Amino acid sequence: MTTYDIAVVGAGFGGLSAAALLAKKGYSVAVLEASFELGGCAGKFNRPGYRFQAGATVGMGFEEGGVLKRLFEELEIDLPPMKRMDTIMNIHMGDETIHYYREKEAWFLELERLFPHIADRAKAFFEEVFQVGSRIDHLLDDLPVFPPKRAIDWLKMTKYVNTNSMKLIPFMTQTLMDRLKAFNVNKDERFLAFLNGQLMDSVQTTAEHCPAFLGHAALQTFHKGAYAVQGGLASVAKSLATSIKDNGGEIHMRRPALHIEQQQGYWVVHSKREKTYVANKVILNNSMHNFHHLFDESVSSKSNVKKDRMDTSWGAFMLYLGVEDNYPADVLYHQIIQNPSKPLAEGNQFLLSLSAPNDRTMAPEGKRAITISTHTEISQWWQQETYEERKAEYVERILDGVEKHFPTIREDIDLLMPGTPVTFERYVKRDKGRVGGYIPNGKWSWLNHYSVHTGLTDVFSCGDTTFPGAGTLGTTLSGWIAANEAMK
User: Fold this and answer.
1) Considering only CA atoms, which of 71, 87, 38, 417 is closest in space to residue 228?
2) Is the pTM above the cut of 0.90?
Protein backbone atom coordinates (compact mmCIF):
# COMPACT_ATOMS: atom_id res chain seq x y z
CA MET A 1 0.00 0.00 0.00
CA THR A 2 1.30 3.44 -0.96
CA THR A 3 2.09 5.77 1.93
CA TYR A 4 1.90 9.43 0.99
CA ASP A 5 3.70 12.27 2.67
CA ILE A 6 0.46 14.24 2.74
CA ALA A 7 -3.18 13.49 1.96
CA VAL A 8 -5.30 16.51 1.05
CA VAL A 9 -9.03 16.13 1.61
CA GLY A 10 -10.95 18.34 -0.81
CA ALA A 11 -10.04 19.91 -4.16
CA GLY A 12 -11.28 23.41 -3.47
CA PHE A 13 -8.94 26.36 -3.98
CA GLY A 14 -7.32 25.82 -0.58
CA GLY A 15 -6.63 22.12 -1.08
CA LEU A 16 -5.44 22.51 -4.66
CA SER A 17 -3.12 25.37 -3.70
CA ALA A 18 -1.64 23.40 -0.80
CA ALA A 19 -1.22 20.25 -2.87
CA ALA A 20 0.34 22.10 -5.82
CA LEU A 21 2.90 23.79 -3.57
CA LEU A 22 3.75 20.53 -1.80
CA ALA A 23 4.07 18.55 -5.03
CA LYS A 24 6.30 21.29 -6.46
CA LYS A 25 8.58 20.82 -3.45
CA GLY A 26 8.82 17.09 -4.08
CA TYR A 27 6.37 15.75 -1.52
CA SER A 28 4.21 12.77 -2.44
CA VAL A 29 0.64 14.07 -2.36
CA ALA A 30 -2.79 12.53 -2.85
CA VAL A 31 -5.80 14.82 -3.24
CA LEU A 32 -9.15 13.19 -2.43
CA GLU A 33 -12.17 14.94 -3.92
CA ALA A 34 -15.70 13.78 -3.11
CA SER A 35 -17.33 15.15 -6.26
CA PHE A 36 -16.54 14.77 -9.95
CA GLU A 37 -15.50 18.44 -10.33
CA LEU A 38 -12.51 20.48 -9.17
CA GLY A 39 -12.71 23.82 -7.37
CA GLY A 40 -15.29 23.18 -4.67
CA CYS A 41 -17.60 26.17 -4.32
CA ALA A 42 -15.54 27.92 -7.01
CA GLY A 43 -15.95 25.01 -9.38
CA LYS A 44 -18.29 24.47 -12.32
CA PHE A 45 -20.81 22.09 -13.78
CA ASN A 46 -21.88 21.51 -17.36
CA ARG A 47 -25.28 21.27 -18.95
CA PRO A 48 -25.96 20.90 -22.68
CA GLY A 49 -24.22 23.86 -24.33
CA TYR A 50 -23.46 25.67 -21.07
CA ARG A 51 -20.87 25.79 -18.31
CA PHE A 52 -22.06 27.30 -15.04
CA GLN A 53 -19.90 28.55 -12.19
CA ALA A 54 -21.13 26.73 -9.10
CA GLY A 55 -20.66 29.53 -6.58
CA ALA A 56 -17.78 32.01 -6.68
CA THR A 57 -17.56 33.89 -9.98
CA VAL A 58 -15.42 37.04 -9.66
CA GLY A 59 -11.70 36.51 -10.26
CA MET A 60 -9.44 38.40 -7.85
CA GLY A 61 -5.79 38.26 -6.85
CA PHE A 62 -4.42 38.11 -10.40
CA GLU A 63 -2.89 41.60 -10.40
CA GLU A 64 0.86 42.08 -10.01
CA GLY A 65 1.67 41.05 -6.44
CA GLY A 66 -1.77 39.47 -5.99
CA VAL A 67 -2.16 36.18 -4.15
CA LEU A 68 -2.98 34.00 -7.15
CA LYS A 69 -0.44 35.77 -9.36
CA ARG A 70 2.26 35.03 -6.78
CA LEU A 71 1.06 31.44 -6.39
CA PHE A 72 1.28 30.76 -10.13
CA GLU A 73 4.72 32.36 -10.22
CA GLU A 74 5.81 30.12 -7.34
CA LEU A 75 4.52 27.09 -9.24
CA GLU A 76 6.10 28.34 -12.49
CA ILE A 77 2.89 27.91 -14.46
CA ASP A 78 0.86 30.27 -16.62
CA LEU A 79 -2.40 31.87 -15.58
CA PRO A 80 -5.41 31.05 -17.76
CA PRO A 81 -6.60 33.79 -20.14
CA MET A 82 -8.56 36.53 -18.40
CA LYS A 83 -9.63 40.14 -18.70
CA ARG A 84 -9.51 42.80 -15.99
CA MET A 85 -12.76 44.74 -15.69
CA ASP A 86 -12.52 48.54 -15.41
CA THR A 87 -15.94 48.51 -13.72
CA ILE A 88 -15.85 46.01 -10.86
CA MET A 89 -19.63 45.76 -10.93
CA ASN A 90 -22.77 47.78 -11.38
CA ILE A 91 -24.81 47.99 -8.20
CA HIS A 92 -28.51 48.44 -8.87
CA MET A 93 -29.95 49.78 -5.65
CA GLY A 94 -33.63 50.65 -5.80
CA ASP A 95 -34.00 52.78 -8.93
CA GLU A 96 -30.39 53.96 -9.19
CA THR A 97 -27.21 52.35 -10.48
CA ILE A 98 -23.83 52.74 -8.83
CA HIS A 99 -20.85 52.18 -11.11
CA TYR A 100 -18.23 50.62 -8.86
CA TYR A 101 -15.04 51.59 -10.66
CA ARG A 102 -11.68 49.95 -9.99
CA GLU A 103 -9.54 53.09 -10.41
CA LYS A 104 -9.57 55.34 -7.37
CA GLU A 105 -9.97 58.57 -9.32
CA ALA A 106 -12.98 57.30 -11.27
CA TRP A 107 -14.52 55.85 -8.10
CA PHE A 108 -14.10 59.13 -6.23
CA LEU A 109 -15.88 60.97 -9.06
CA GLU A 110 -18.71 58.44 -8.74
CA LEU A 111 -18.88 59.12 -5.00
CA GLU A 112 -19.24 62.82 -5.75
CA ARG A 113 -22.06 62.09 -8.19
CA LEU A 114 -23.95 59.73 -5.90
CA PHE A 115 -23.28 61.13 -2.44
CA PRO A 116 -22.46 64.83 -2.90
CA HIS A 117 -23.37 65.77 0.67
CA ILE A 118 -20.86 63.28 2.20
CA ALA A 119 -18.45 62.85 -0.72
CA ASP A 120 -15.40 64.34 1.00
CA ARG A 121 -15.92 62.21 4.09
CA ALA A 122 -16.64 59.10 2.01
CA LYS A 123 -13.45 59.64 0.03
CA ALA A 124 -11.47 60.07 3.25
CA PHE A 125 -12.93 56.77 4.50
CA PHE A 126 -11.84 55.02 1.30
CA GLU A 127 -8.37 56.54 1.56
CA GLU A 128 -8.14 54.81 4.93
CA VAL A 129 -9.45 51.59 3.36
CA PHE A 130 -6.68 51.64 0.75
CA GLN A 131 -3.99 52.45 3.30
CA VAL A 132 -5.05 49.81 5.85
CA GLY A 133 -5.67 47.23 3.13
CA SER A 134 -2.14 47.74 1.84
CA ARG A 135 -0.73 47.21 5.33
CA ILE A 136 -2.72 43.98 5.70
CA ASP A 137 -1.43 42.77 2.33
CA HIS A 138 2.11 43.43 3.48
CA LEU A 139 1.49 41.43 6.67
CA LEU A 140 -0.10 38.48 4.84
CA ASP A 141 2.75 38.34 2.30
CA ASP A 142 4.73 36.51 5.00
CA LEU A 143 1.93 33.91 5.43
CA PRO A 144 1.65 34.07 9.23
CA VAL A 145 -0.21 31.46 11.29
CA PHE A 146 -3.12 33.54 12.49
CA PRO A 147 -4.86 33.97 14.82
CA PRO A 148 -2.25 32.68 17.27
CA LYS A 149 -3.60 29.77 19.31
CA ARG A 150 -0.51 27.88 20.47
CA ALA A 151 2.35 29.23 22.55
CA ILE A 152 4.68 28.88 19.59
CA ASP A 153 2.27 30.92 17.43
CA TRP A 154 2.36 33.77 19.94
CA LEU A 155 6.15 33.56 20.08
CA LYS A 156 6.38 33.78 16.28
CA MET A 157 4.10 36.81 16.27
CA THR A 158 6.91 38.86 17.82
CA LYS A 159 8.57 39.01 14.38
CA TYR A 160 5.58 41.03 13.17
CA VAL A 161 5.95 43.70 15.83
CA ASN A 162 6.99 46.56 13.60
CA THR A 163 5.75 49.95 12.44
CA ASN A 164 3.44 48.43 9.85
CA SER A 165 1.71 45.94 12.15
CA MET A 166 1.46 48.33 15.09
CA LYS A 167 -0.54 50.72 12.93
CA LEU A 168 -3.07 47.93 12.33
CA ILE A 169 -3.90 47.45 16.03
CA PRO A 170 -6.69 50.08 16.18
CA PHE A 171 -8.46 48.32 13.30
CA MET A 172 -8.31 44.99 15.12
CA THR A 173 -10.17 46.41 18.10
CA GLN A 174 -13.05 48.11 16.27
CA THR A 175 -15.86 47.21 13.92
CA LEU A 176 -16.17 48.75 10.48
CA MET A 177 -19.15 50.68 11.81
CA ASP A 178 -16.84 52.31 14.35
CA ARG A 179 -14.68 53.52 11.47
CA LEU A 180 -17.72 54.82 9.57
CA LYS A 181 -18.71 56.76 12.68
CA ALA A 182 -15.22 58.22 12.87
CA PHE A 183 -15.75 59.70 9.40
CA ASN A 184 -19.36 60.64 10.12
CA VAL A 185 -20.73 58.65 7.19
CA ASN A 186 -22.61 56.05 9.22
CA LYS A 187 -25.99 57.79 9.09
CA ASP A 188 -26.33 57.96 5.33
CA GLU A 189 -28.65 55.02 4.65
CA ARG A 190 -27.82 54.77 0.93
CA PHE A 191 -24.06 54.79 1.49
CA LEU A 192 -24.42 52.23 4.28
CA ALA A 193 -26.63 49.98 2.13
CA PHE A 194 -24.02 50.11 -0.65
CA LEU A 195 -21.18 49.20 1.73
CA ASN A 196 -23.16 46.45 3.41
CA GLY A 197 -23.89 44.91 0.03
CA GLN A 198 -20.16 44.63 -0.68
CA LEU A 199 -19.41 43.30 2.79
CA MET A 200 -22.10 40.62 2.59
CA ASP A 201 -20.59 39.31 -0.63
CA SER A 202 -17.03 39.33 0.71
CA VAL A 203 -17.07 38.79 4.49
CA GLN A 204 -20.63 37.50 5.02
CA THR A 205 -21.81 40.26 7.34
CA THR A 206 -22.56 43.97 7.62
CA ALA A 207 -20.51 46.91 8.93
CA GLU A 208 -22.05 46.68 12.40
CA HIS A 209 -20.62 43.20 12.98
CA CYS A 210 -17.51 43.19 10.77
CA PRO A 211 -14.05 43.60 12.35
CA ALA A 212 -12.62 46.77 10.82
CA PHE A 213 -9.45 45.24 9.42
CA LEU A 214 -11.39 42.45 7.67
CA GLY A 215 -13.76 45.00 6.16
CA HIS A 216 -10.94 47.24 4.99
CA ALA A 217 -9.10 44.28 3.46
CA ALA A 218 -12.23 43.18 1.59
CA LEU A 219 -13.17 46.62 0.30
CA GLN A 220 -9.70 47.44 -0.99
CA THR A 221 -9.43 44.05 -2.71
CA PHE A 222 -12.19 45.03 -5.14
CA HIS A 223 -10.12 47.99 -6.29
CA LYS A 224 -7.06 45.89 -7.04
CA GLY A 225 -8.95 44.29 -9.89
CA ALA A 226 -11.92 42.09 -10.76
CA TYR A 227 -11.14 39.62 -13.54
CA ALA A 228 -13.30 37.62 -15.92
CA VAL A 229 -11.45 34.32 -16.31
CA GLN A 230 -12.04 32.47 -19.56
CA GLY A 231 -13.97 29.34 -18.66
CA GLY A 232 -14.64 30.70 -15.17
CA LEU A 233 -12.69 30.08 -11.99
CA ALA A 234 -12.78 26.38 -12.76
CA SER A 235 -10.00 27.14 -15.28
CA VAL A 236 -7.78 28.22 -12.37
CA ALA A 237 -8.61 25.01 -10.50
CA LYS A 238 -7.74 22.98 -13.60
CA SER A 239 -4.35 24.71 -13.92
CA LEU A 240 -3.55 23.93 -10.28
CA ALA A 241 -4.59 20.31 -10.75
CA THR A 242 -2.38 20.01 -13.82
CA SER A 243 0.55 21.37 -11.82
CA ILE A 244 -0.06 18.78 -9.11
CA LYS A 245 -0.04 15.92 -11.61
CA ASP A 246 2.95 17.29 -13.52
CA ASN A 247 4.95 17.26 -10.28
CA GLY A 248 4.04 13.66 -9.42
CA GLY A 249 1.00 14.27 -7.24
CA GLU A 250 -2.24 12.34 -7.53
CA ILE A 251 -5.85 13.52 -7.70
CA HIS A 252 -8.58 10.99 -6.95
CA MET A 253 -12.05 12.14 -7.95
CA ARG A 254 -15.24 10.84 -6.37
CA ARG A 255 -13.25 9.76 -3.35
CA PRO A 256 -14.97 11.29 -0.30
CA ALA A 257 -13.25 11.12 3.07
CA LEU A 258 -15.69 9.10 5.17
CA HIS A 259 -13.56 8.49 8.23
CA ILE A 260 -10.04 9.33 9.37
CA GLU A 261 -8.14 7.44 12.05
CA GLN A 262 -4.60 7.02 13.27
CA GLN A 263 -2.87 3.66 12.87
CA GLN A 264 0.71 2.93 13.87
CA GLY A 265 1.73 6.58 13.63
CA TYR A 266 0.06 7.21 10.25
CA TRP A 267 -3.22 8.87 9.36
CA VAL A 268 -5.55 6.61 7.39
CA VAL A 269 -8.31 8.19 5.30
CA HIS A 270 -11.16 5.79 4.54
CA SER A 271 -13.19 6.39 1.40
CA LYS A 272 -16.00 4.52 -0.34
CA ARG A 273 -15.65 0.95 -1.62
CA GLU A 274 -13.27 0.28 1.27
CA LYS A 275 -10.55 2.37 -0.40
CA THR A 276 -7.96 3.74 2.06
CA TYR A 277 -5.19 6.31 1.78
CA VAL A 278 -2.31 6.25 4.25
CA ALA A 279 -0.32 9.42 4.91
CA ASN A 280 2.09 10.95 7.37
CA LYS A 281 0.05 14.16 7.46
CA VAL A 282 -3.40 15.34 6.42
CA ILE A 283 -4.66 18.71 5.19
CA LEU A 284 -8.43 19.17 5.41
CA ASN A 285 -10.03 21.42 2.81
CA ASN A 286 -13.58 20.15 3.31
CA SER A 287 -14.81 22.75 5.86
CA MET A 288 -14.61 22.63 9.63
CA HIS A 289 -18.37 22.00 9.59
CA ASN A 290 -17.53 18.47 8.46
CA PHE A 291 -14.71 17.96 10.96
CA HIS A 292 -16.55 16.03 13.67
CA HIS A 293 -18.06 13.66 11.11
CA LEU A 294 -14.58 12.46 10.14
CA PHE A 295 -13.05 11.44 13.46
CA ASP A 296 -14.09 9.31 16.40
CA GLU A 297 -15.14 11.36 19.41
CA SER A 298 -12.03 10.20 21.27
CA VAL A 299 -9.91 11.87 18.59
CA SER A 300 -11.95 14.96 17.70
CA SER A 301 -12.31 15.90 21.38
CA LYS A 302 -8.56 16.55 21.43
CA SER A 303 -8.87 19.14 18.64
CA ASN A 304 -9.61 22.85 18.94
CA VAL A 305 -12.65 22.55 16.65
CA LYS A 306 -15.74 23.26 18.72
CA LYS A 307 -19.14 21.81 17.86
CA ASP A 308 -21.02 24.83 19.22
CA ARG A 309 -19.80 26.99 16.31
CA MET A 310 -21.19 24.83 13.56
CA ASP A 311 -24.34 26.89 12.89
CA THR A 312 -22.80 30.34 12.38
CA SER A 313 -22.69 30.24 8.59
CA TRP A 314 -24.92 31.16 5.68
CA GLY A 315 -26.25 28.96 2.96
CA ALA A 316 -26.62 30.07 -0.65
CA PHE A 317 -29.61 30.06 -2.96
CA MET A 318 -28.40 29.92 -6.55
CA LEU A 319 -30.08 30.48 -9.88
CA TYR A 320 -28.32 29.26 -13.02
CA LEU A 321 -29.63 30.63 -16.31
CA GLY A 322 -28.80 30.05 -19.94
CA VAL A 323 -30.11 33.06 -21.86
CA GLU A 324 -30.17 34.79 -25.22
CA ASP A 325 -27.34 37.32 -25.51
CA ASN A 326 -29.17 40.59 -24.81
CA TYR A 327 -26.91 41.67 -21.96
CA PRO A 328 -23.97 44.04 -21.35
CA ALA A 329 -20.56 43.09 -22.70
CA ASP A 330 -18.54 45.67 -20.77
CA VAL A 331 -19.86 45.02 -17.23
CA LEU A 332 -20.20 41.34 -16.32
CA TYR A 333 -20.94 41.57 -12.60
CA HIS A 334 -24.10 43.14 -11.22
CA GLN A 335 -25.31 43.39 -7.65
CA ILE A 336 -29.02 44.02 -7.17
CA ILE A 337 -30.31 45.37 -3.86
CA GLN A 338 -34.07 45.39 -4.20
CA ASN A 339 -34.91 47.24 -0.98
CA PRO A 340 -31.95 48.93 0.77
CA SER A 341 -33.89 49.22 4.03
CA LYS A 342 -34.40 45.45 4.37
CA PRO A 343 -31.93 42.69 5.37
CA LEU A 344 -29.47 41.81 2.61
CA ALA A 345 -30.37 38.14 2.19
CA GLU A 346 -33.14 35.82 0.98
CA GLY A 347 -33.22 37.34 -2.49
CA ASN A 348 -33.36 40.97 -1.43
CA GLN A 349 -29.69 41.32 -2.38
CA PHE A 350 -27.98 39.10 -4.92
CA LEU A 351 -24.96 38.99 -7.22
CA LEU A 352 -25.56 38.34 -10.92
CA SER A 353 -22.56 37.21 -12.97
CA LEU A 354 -22.62 37.07 -16.77
CA SER A 355 -20.26 35.00 -18.86
CA ALA A 356 -18.20 37.02 -21.30
CA PRO A 357 -19.97 37.27 -24.67
CA ASN A 358 -17.02 35.74 -26.56
CA ASP A 359 -16.35 32.89 -24.10
CA ARG A 360 -17.52 29.82 -25.98
CA THR A 361 -16.50 27.52 -23.11
CA MET A 362 -19.39 29.03 -21.12
CA ALA A 363 -22.20 29.29 -23.66
CA PRO A 364 -22.98 28.71 -27.36
CA GLU A 365 -22.84 31.49 -29.94
CA GLY A 366 -25.57 34.02 -29.25
CA LYS A 367 -26.10 32.78 -25.67
CA ARG A 368 -24.76 33.73 -22.22
CA ALA A 369 -24.49 31.82 -18.93
CA ILE A 370 -25.66 33.60 -15.79
CA THR A 371 -24.99 32.65 -12.17
CA ILE A 372 -27.05 34.40 -9.46
CA SER A 373 -26.45 33.95 -5.73
CA THR A 374 -28.09 35.21 -2.56
CA HIS A 375 -27.46 34.47 1.11
CA THR A 376 -30.06 32.33 2.83
CA GLU A 377 -30.72 30.94 6.30
CA ILE A 378 -30.06 27.21 6.17
CA SER A 379 -32.57 25.43 8.37
CA GLN A 380 -35.62 26.39 6.28
CA TRP A 381 -34.31 24.37 3.33
CA TRP A 382 -34.37 21.14 5.28
CA GLN A 383 -38.13 21.29 5.82
CA GLN A 384 -39.17 18.82 3.15
CA GLU A 385 -42.86 19.70 3.13
CA THR A 386 -42.18 23.31 2.03
CA TYR A 387 -39.01 22.77 -0.02
CA GLU A 388 -40.39 22.87 -3.57
CA GLU A 389 -42.77 25.73 -2.84
CA ARG A 390 -40.00 27.77 -1.24
CA LYS A 391 -37.64 27.10 -4.15
CA ALA A 392 -40.23 28.29 -6.69
CA GLU A 393 -40.91 31.38 -4.57
CA TYR A 394 -37.21 32.33 -4.48
CA VAL A 395 -36.90 31.86 -8.25
CA GLU A 396 -39.75 34.30 -8.84
CA ARG A 397 -38.46 36.78 -6.25
CA ILE A 398 -35.06 36.93 -7.91
CA LEU A 399 -36.41 37.07 -11.46
CA ASP A 400 -38.66 39.96 -10.40
CA GLY A 401 -35.55 41.78 -9.17
CA VAL A 402 -33.57 41.06 -12.33
CA GLU A 403 -36.48 42.11 -14.56
CA LYS A 404 -36.44 45.66 -13.18
CA HIS A 405 -32.98 46.18 -14.65
CA PHE A 406 -32.93 43.63 -17.48
CA PRO A 407 -36.54 43.70 -18.72
CA THR A 408 -36.25 40.83 -21.23
CA ILE A 409 -34.89 38.27 -18.76
CA ARG A 410 -37.93 35.97 -18.65
CA GLU A 411 -38.34 35.72 -22.41
CA ASP A 412 -34.57 35.26 -22.88
CA ILE A 413 -34.33 32.16 -20.69
CA ASP A 414 -33.19 29.04 -22.52
CA LEU A 415 -32.31 27.02 -19.41
CA LEU A 416 -33.16 27.59 -15.71
CA MET A 417 -31.86 25.64 -12.72
CA PRO A 418 -32.14 26.65 -9.05
CA GLY A 419 -29.73 25.47 -6.36
CA THR A 420 -30.22 25.44 -2.58
CA PRO A 421 -28.22 24.44 0.50
CA VAL A 422 -29.54 20.92 -0.12
CA THR A 423 -27.89 21.06 -3.55
CA PHE A 424 -24.58 22.18 -2.03
CA GLU A 425 -24.60 19.35 0.48
CA ARG A 426 -25.31 16.85 -2.28
CA TYR A 427 -22.70 18.02 -4.78
CA VAL A 428 -19.90 19.64 -2.77
CA LYS A 429 -20.50 17.72 0.47
CA ARG A 430 -20.77 20.79 2.70
CA ASP A 431 -22.57 19.86 5.93
CA LYS A 432 -26.16 21.13 5.59
CA GLY A 433 -24.97 23.21 2.63
CA ARG A 434 -23.11 25.76 4.74
CA VAL A 435 -20.86 27.92 2.56
CA GLY A 436 -18.77 31.08 2.84
CA GLY A 437 -17.08 30.43 6.18
CA TYR A 438 -18.15 31.76 9.54
CA ILE A 439 -20.21 34.91 9.98
CA PRO A 440 -18.24 37.60 11.89
CA ASN A 441 -20.24 38.87 14.84
CA GLY A 442 -18.27 41.73 16.36
CA LYS A 443 -14.92 43.47 16.68
CA TRP A 444 -13.26 40.52 18.44
CA SER A 445 -14.78 37.79 16.27
CA TRP A 446 -11.56 37.45 14.25
CA LEU A 447 -10.09 35.72 17.31
CA ASN A 448 -12.62 32.91 16.78
CA HIS A 449 -11.26 32.04 13.35
CA TYR A 450 -9.57 28.69 13.10
CA SER A 451 -5.89 28.73 12.26
CA VAL A 452 -4.43 26.02 10.03
CA HIS A 453 -3.59 23.98 13.15
CA THR A 454 -6.53 21.80 14.19
CA GLY A 455 -5.04 20.75 17.51
CA LEU A 456 -4.47 17.23 16.18
CA THR A 457 -0.83 16.39 15.48
CA ASP A 458 -0.07 16.55 11.75
CA VAL A 459 -3.67 17.41 10.80
CA PHE A 460 -4.05 20.86 9.25
CA SER A 461 -6.98 22.75 7.81
CA CYS A 462 -7.56 25.26 5.05
CA GLY A 463 -10.53 26.72 3.22
CA ASP A 464 -13.25 29.25 3.97
CA THR A 465 -13.64 28.19 7.62
CA THR A 466 -9.91 28.75 8.27
CA PHE A 467 -8.24 32.16 8.53
CA PRO A 468 -8.33 34.39 6.53
CA GLY A 469 -11.76 33.05 5.59
CA ALA A 470 -14.15 33.21 2.67
CA GLY A 471 -13.42 33.82 -1.00
CA THR A 472 -10.86 32.37 -3.37
CA LEU A 473 -8.15 34.70 -2.05
CA GLY A 474 -8.75 33.71 1.56
CA THR A 475 -8.93 30.00 0.82
CA THR A 476 -5.82 30.14 -1.37
CA LEU A 477 -3.88 31.90 1.37
CA SER A 478 -5.00 29.36 3.96
CA GLY A 479 -3.90 26.54 1.66
CA TRP A 480 -0.50 28.19 1.22
CA ILE A 481 -0.10 28.58 4.98
CA ALA A 482 -1.19 24.97 5.58
CA ALA A 483 1.38 23.75 3.06
CA ASN A 484 4.12 25.74 4.76
CA GLU A 485 3.20 24.33 8.16
CA ALA A 486 2.95 20.77 6.82
CA MET A 487 6.50 21.06 5.44
CA LYS A 488 7.93 21.77 8.90
Assistant:
1) 87
2) yes
